[in-house]
Structures are given as C-alpha cells and as structure tokens.
Design a protein that fits this description.
Length: 115
RNA sequence: GAAAGUAGUCGGAUAAUCGCGCUUGAAAAAGUGAGGAAAGUCCGUGCAUCCAAGGACAUAUCUCCGGAGAAACUCCGGACGGCGUGAGCCGGUGGAAAGUGCCACAGAAAUGAAAAGCGAACACUACACAAGUUUUGCAAGACUGCCGAUGGAAGUAAUUCACAGGCGAUGGUGCAACGGUGAGGUAAGAGCAUCACCAGCGAUAUCGAGAGAUAUCGGCUAGGUAAACCCAGAUAGGAUGCAAGAUAGAUCUGAAGGCUAUAAAGGUUGUCCACCAACUUCUAAGUUAUCGCUUGAGAUUAUGAGUAAUCAUAAUACUAGACAGAUGAUUAUCUAGAAACAGAACACGGCUUAUGAGCUACUUUCAUUA
RNA sequence: CGGGAUGUGGCGCAGCUUGGUAGCGCACCUCGCUUGGGACGAGGGGGUCGCACGUUCAAAUCGUGUCAUCCCGA
C-alpha cells in the first residue's frame, strides 16, 4: 500500500473523480483525473481492477501491485502532480500478463497528460 | 530393464537495493506475515440475532453390517456385486410372492400368458366362380406345427387320416417369452416325486458380533423397472448469516389525521387452527469508532490402547487478522535454459475440482540374463 | 457471503413434466417464376442436445459430479 496521505479511500471520493469524466487511455490502463485546488500537498491515488477483467484474484492482484509499484517509484522521484486532488488508475484485460517495464512506461506516459 | 498400482513427500532457494500490513516500544528498532488446495460452495457443525416453546398433517433427507466421530452426500474395517492377467480399483447396495403405473417397434402373446385362429350368414367389389374386404357370432369341441404309442376309421398289408388323443419341445419376434446347459427317457415331448452341474426360493445345522458364508434336505420356479409413484424403517424446532450481532457517540425530529363496523392485506415453516404487529400526509437528518477477530471439537512431539479410523495422557510453542483491503518490484546466481495450480476476510470437519519438475517406500505384470 | 436460472443446426427458440420419431422461424444451397433483382412457390443440406460417469433393453429427457454464462439480495 502507498503511504496513508496518498491513498484514495472512500466511495464518495471515487464517484466524485469519475463524475469529472476527464480520462486518458494507454495500453490497457485508463487514468481518471479529478479536480484541482490550491494548497494540495499530495494527490490521492486509487487503483481498480474489476472482477470482469479477469476471474482469478491472483491475476487481478498482480496487475494492481505492478501499477502501485510504478506509482510509488514515480512519487519517490518528486513528480509534480500540479495540485491535482485525486487520480484513479483502472486496469483492463489488455494489460494483464504484461511485465513491470511495460506497465511503468504506460503510466509515465499517462501522467504526462496532466496539465 | 520396461509398464503399472498404492501410500507419502516437496510446493522454490540465496544475496543486494527500494517498499507494505500487524504486534511490542516514548523512540530507535525488533518480531511476525497466505494454501495444499486459501478455490468451487456440494454437504455438516460451532457461534450470533429473531420467531416458537402447542397440536395435526404434509414435507425434506438417508438406506448392506460393525466401529469411529459434534455431525455429515464423512472416515476406518468387513460382506456382497462389478472391472482388471495382476497389484488393486469402483459401487445412492432395504422392499417387485401390499398396491398402482410403464415395458416403444416387432410379435399370437409383455404377465389372471398363449386365438401361431375357425365356422356361418348377409352385404359390398366383381358378368360369374375363385379370391379379398368388412360386419356379426363362437369358446377349448376347433386351428398351424411336432407325434401317431393307446383308441377309432380306411386298406389284404405296408401305410394313410385337416380322426379322437398327447405335448409345449421346435420355429419366428424382441432387452426380456413362468428357470439354464447336457444326458437319460418317450410315439413325440415335458423338472419328468429321472440324473449331473448351475441360478433362484424355503427349511435345518455349523461358523461369525453382524452383513453373510458353507453343507444337507425339500418342494419343483415367483419377468424387468422403486436414480417411476409407492411401502417399510431411521433422522430433523424454524428463519436469517460476521454486511450476523454487541457497546459507545451522533442522529433517531415535530405536527395533523386514522385507530367504530364490514371486506381485504403483513409476519411466525408449506397449509389449517392458534398467536403477534400495524397505517396515511407534510417535514428534518444521515462519509463514526471500538468490539466480534482469532487460544482452537486447534497444532507439533512422545508414550499407551486399537487391525484401523480414532481415543487417552504428558510436554512444547502461540504462528496473518486487513477494511479501496498487506506478502511486492528490479538485478544476479542456482536447482532444471523458462516453477504449475492458485490469494485468508468469523471459524472448524469433510467432499469435489485444478496443479510444474522431481524424490522415497512397498507391491504387481511382462521381458532378458544367471 | 447467500439465493436462482440457462446451456439443443450459423442466430433466436420448442421438445424434458409422462424416457423410444430431435422440430419451428430466420439464414444457407438448388430449381422455377422475372428482361434482371427482390418477394413468392417447390425441393434440399446442416445439430448426437456444454462435458463426464451412472440407472435403464433404451437417456436431449432420470440421478450424481463438473465446466461456462447470466441474474437477484445483503
């Protein structure tokens, strides 16, 4: 898990982020970007791989962990999120079974889209 | 040496860097962190709340015997049946001489077996006869087949008879035709108070705790289907599942109408009796925390009892407990050049299914050599 | 976590209760009709009933297990 101030937690935060409908797609990963506001130190980030993507829990967990690890390394490099409140990454079936390098590149490309 | 069977084991390891959950601690830090199936949810329980604590019927589940177990579509040992050359494996395995139903097609007949048909009159088709169709009647005396002993008829006789009589063998149909195969026997035949072997039924004796096994005798035979209804026996308080539920805090508001009669409607198990509760309109609020939560019908080791499942006693350690939900990423080396199936969400006992590369023990069959 | 349903030609559905013949519509192929096409008419092909085992003389149908898909409740 990410450090506690980076976690996107409750149901209202998730649905609020989805409602903005500001999304980007790359290699089986969809990124939803939430509102912007001043005085935000760290963005809240959530990861979703639904049961419809794959039936087996092991494969869903694997994709989620790879995405989380990639984001963790990016945060460590002091990436500038430009005062974004919340971000959600949704894994789709095209991303299943890919290596860490492929996932990492996709997420880096997606995060460049934030303005 | 090859091919099998059974039981068990293993379920990646090491190092470096960057990280996560929980516990302890003031902090630094230390400890600890998925499975053999955690899966499917197919059974059975604990635990929790609510209803009932009264009765009847219905309903559901189970079904060889003994034992184990909290219970189980559970396990162990045995019996019987089936499969396999064998080691072994598989089996929802009570009752069809209580009753009902079903057994397609074929066949005379599918279960009180047997009608393998026959005769006559009238009508129709037809010129008529022959022949056919239809209708009606008949009940073991008749018909097809086998036989011609006995009796009868014909004939000198051999012999013949759609004569009486005897028989249910043979042929055909079908999964199945009121025991099977062979011999004797007979005119031909037949379980035929004839025989041998076998199946089945009943009785008796012996062995066994029992399922059952073995032997002898008897009469001389009763179709299949209960994973069709059913019968018999046994068992079962019901509903809802940890998002159960408990505690604390916040909220849970306020107002008006209705609450007499009839009918209808809700809940408690499917029904009945019986019992319990209540509605409508306007209006207000709603991102909580802790417990339940892991010390247990537990685990490991040893000893004892038992064929075994399992049980008893003693010692040892405490070993995930999250809540957008922890076990990860990268690199290198190795087993084996690329590690399968797969992720705890209250817990436990089973069953079922998925699974890479090997290893160990015992057993069987075949081949080769001595 | 709990509950329910479905699986049958290429597609959508009957048949299962009460076991013996797998059928209907659309689509497909051939022929006819037409100057040609469509429509119409006639004829034809194609499925072993998701999979496995069992009960039975006989299974799409009955029983058990298993796989997949869909839906509902908290």
């Amino acid at each position: 898990m990410l450090p506690e101030n980076y976690r996107l937690k409750n149901k209202y935060a998730f649905s609020a982020t989805y409602k903005i409908q500001n999304s980007f797609y790359k290699n089986g990963i969809i990124m939803f970007v939430g509102k912007k506001s001043e005085n935000i130190i760290s963005p809240k980030i959530g990861f979703v791989v639904s049961k419809k993507t794959h039936k087996r829990a092991v494969k869903r967990n694997r994709l989620k962990r790879l995405m989380r690890e990639s984001v963790r390394l990016i945060i460590k490099d002091n990436f500038d999120f430009k005062n974004t409140q919340s971000i959600i990454f949704v894994g789709k079936s095209q991303a299943l079974g890919k290596s860490f390098d492929e996932i990492n590149n996709s997420i880096k490309l997606l995060l460049k889209e934030i303005n």
